[in-house]
Design brief:
This protein has 341 residues and is of the alpha/beta class. It has helices at residues 37-40, 48-70, 87-104, 113-119, 172-182, 189-197, 222-239, 244-272, 288-301, 312-315, 320-332; strands at residues 2-7, 12-22, 25-35, 77-83, 108-112, 140-145, 150-155, 161-166, 277-281, 306-308. A hairpin with a 4-residue loop joins strand 6 (140-145) and strand 7 (150-155). The structure holds 5'-O-[(R)-(carboxyoxy)(hydroxy)phosphoryl]adenosine and zinc ion (ZN). Zinc ion binds next to helix 4.
């Protein structure tokens, strides 16, 4: 099955062509991404109208390039990000996909962006060798950590997915972006905080991990950002300008407080549902420190389980994950068969 996929939910225009041999074996034929970071940087975040304008400009160029490199007119499906995302940006991809599908007489499928993040782990390597069969994965827990979402799900299959909890205010990626702004770093803040935190000393500062002990799967990150803001202001009273080491120590403590709560709640969900696997996706899953700590605890505490984290370029927004979302859903819902044809 060959899928052409379009991603325009936020500030990345993505086009991919992926061949799916089974639910867990995929060959990426084309993977194009046009980033708008330079456009939004000066505003410190994504401006929806500007994002839509950039998608309108970039999407036809990427499609043209993709088709030229692919060198064939053969694909079985067009998949596009339908929701969630910035509505003006989504509208560009949706309209393009539907028009393109009509002109090519090819079926068009709306895709949930978050489902794409969950299955993005199948983009690299042959995950099939890790997986005995589809059933052996479930129940599974999925953690989506992006700029717009922080959610925990329990999955009983690739179709039966229930939301356990989510953030009541800011998403974790949003908190990292806002925290970065407090520290005078540029957008997007997650990778900047990560870089700075590598030079930070553990214990120099501590921030409380919001809702870490609450007996549910909800998250909250807006208070954490406020705590950083107040701490930075207090320090500035004495230091005038924050020194590089102080900033690095603050970045370390800030990132740690956010990741502690993600780890604690995910562990609790894994235990409560006696999960056999854990899927993590979304831009924050590109963070090296987060990946390491999840890999460590999972290996130690769930040695029989399977952990799926996408390679960093597939953790952040891309169109490959949209093609995978279509393929995984279609293939696994065909009476549980895992083969594409
Ligand atoms: O999934 P994504 O690309 O877009 C959304 O669906 O929101 O996630 C973007 C978020 C941003 O908040 C960005 O700062 C964060 O992911 N992010 C990171 C890293 N790379 C991107 N956060 C922490 N560490 C990173 N390396
Ligand atoms: Zn995303």
């Amino acid at each position: 099955m060959i899928t052409l996929a379009i991603e325009t939910s936020c500030d990345e225009t993505g086009v991919a062509i992926v061949e799916s041999m089974s639910a867990f074996e995929h060959r990426i034929i084309i993977n194009l991404l046009s980033s708008q970071i330079a456009v939004h940087k000066k505003y410190g975040g994504v401006v929806p109208g500007l994002a839509a304008r950039e998608h309108t400009k970039n999407l036809p160029l990427l499609i043209k390039k993709a088709l030229k490199e692919y060198g064939s007119a053969r694909f079985d499906a067009i998949a596009y990000t339908n929701n969630p995302g910035l509505e003006p940006a989504l509208l560009v991809g949706r309209t393009f996909a539907k028009t393109f599908g009509y002109a090519r007489n090819t079926p068009v499928y709306p895709i949930n962006h978050l489902y794409g993040h969950i299955v993005a782990c199948f983009a690299s390597g042959n995950q099939r060798s890790k997986i005995k069969n589809q059933k052996s994965l479930f129940p599974a827990i999925a953690l989506v950590i992006s700029g717009g979402h922080t959610q925990l799900y329990v999955m009983f299959s690739f179709q039966k997915i229930e939301l356990l909890g989510e953030t009541v205010d800011d998403a974790v990626g949003e908190a990292l972006d806002k925290g970065a702004r407090v520290l005078g770093l540029s957008y997007p803040g997650g990778p900047e905080i990560e870089k700075l935190a590598r030079m930070g000393h553990e214990g120099a500062f501590t921030f409380p991990s919001p809702m870490i002990s609450s007996p549910n799967f909800q998250f909250s990150f807006s208070g954490l950002k406020t705590a950083l803001l107040y701490k930075a202001r207090d320090l500035q009273k004495n230091e005038k300008k924050l020194g590089n080491q102080t900033k690095a120590d603050l970045a370390f403590a800030y990132q740690k407080a956010a990741f502690d709560v993600l780890e604690t709640k995910t562990k609790r969900a894994l235990q409560e549902y006696q999960a056999r696997s854990l899927f993590i996706g979304g831009g924050v899953a590109a963070n090296c420190s987060l990946r390491k700590r999840f890999e460590k605890f999972f290996k130690e505490e769930f040695p029989k389980g399977l952990l799926f984290i996408p390679a960093p370029p597939f953790a952040t927004d891309n169109a490959v994950m949209i093609a995978l979302a279509h393929a995984v859903h279609i293939i696994t819902s065909k009476g549980g068969k895992e083969r594409a044809r």
